[in-house]
Design a protein that fits this description.
With about 200 residues, this protein is α/β, with parallel strands linked by helices. The protein folds into 2 domains: about 1-125, Thiamin pyrophosphokinase, catalytic domain (Rossmann fold), CATH 3.40.50.10240; about 130-195, Sandwich (Jelly Rolls). The protein has 5 helices and 11 strands, in the order βαβαβαβαβαββββββ. It has helices at about 10-15, 30-35, 55-60, 75-85, 100-115; strands spanning about 1-5, 25-30, 45, 65, 90-95, 120, 125-130, 135, 140-155, 160-165, 185-195. Strands 1, 2, 3, 4, 5, 6, 7, 8, 9, 10 and 11 form an 11-stranded mixed sheet that branches. It starts with a strand and ends with a strand.
Length: about 200
């Protein structure tokens, strides 16, 4: 089952371009305002300490999950766990990559590491975690890999190819690669964060 988590720093353009059909949508905090603006049905989730129109969000959402302000998880992490508990195994976070508080982005990367059913995207970036072989389509300008643990990686179809390279955490060798073909093949024995970006 497919679900989306919409955060406050996602653009209206991306929401309008996203196919939400047959999916559950959870708006987190200001993400609810984005969804109301574009007339989407959604579950509202958060402690709502950063919104001024809580009553309107409460009235417009199909369900309200009101969290306490003091808690062990971020609102986004709670939304992920909420959807997984409902049985959703294909979850896309829209937003959460940029913003004024970089620590929230790092917390979201930790979510990607902990929950392989997640991806995260905004207008310019697409993030996912991979632990096995996969292909990438030529849809982004830059391709980046960061090891989340010691990983053997092979890269074919990108400008800079590798053959069974031991990529360790904090090794920046595999940043800023690019496509030379319509498809690239990546082999991973380990666990890597994949970041696809445009200018």
């Amino acid at each position: 089952m497919k679900a989306f988590i919409v955060l406050g720093n996602v653009s209206d353009k991306l929401i309008a371009a996203t196919d939400f059909s047959n999916s559950l949508i959870v708006g987190v905090e200001d993400g609810c305002n984005k969804l109301m603006k574009l007339h989407h049905n959604f579950i509202a989730l958060g402690d709502f300490d950063s919104v001024t129109n809580f009553k309107k969000i409460s009235n417009k959402s199909q369900k309200l999950v009101h969290l306490p302000r003091e808690k062990d998880d971020t609102d986004t992490a709670y939304a992920v766990k909420y959807l997984i508990n409902l049985g959703y195994n294909d979850i896309t976070i829209l937003g959460g990559i940029k913003g004024f508080r970089c620590e929230h982005f790092i917390a979201n990367v930790i979510l990607l590491n902990n929950y392989p059913q997640l991806i995260m995207k905004d207008d310019n970036s697409y993030l996912m975690v991979k632990e096995n072989d996969f292909t990438l389509q030529n849809e982004y300008q830059h391709v980046n890999f960061f090891a989340l643990k010691d990983s053997i990686i092979s890269i074919k179809g990108l400008k800079y190819e590798l053959d069974n390279y031991l990529l360790k955490p904090f090794d920046p060798l595999t940043i800023s690669n690019s496509f030379i073909k319509e498809e690239a093949f990546i082999s991973v024995q380990g666990k890597v964060l994949v970041i696809l970006t445009n200018e």
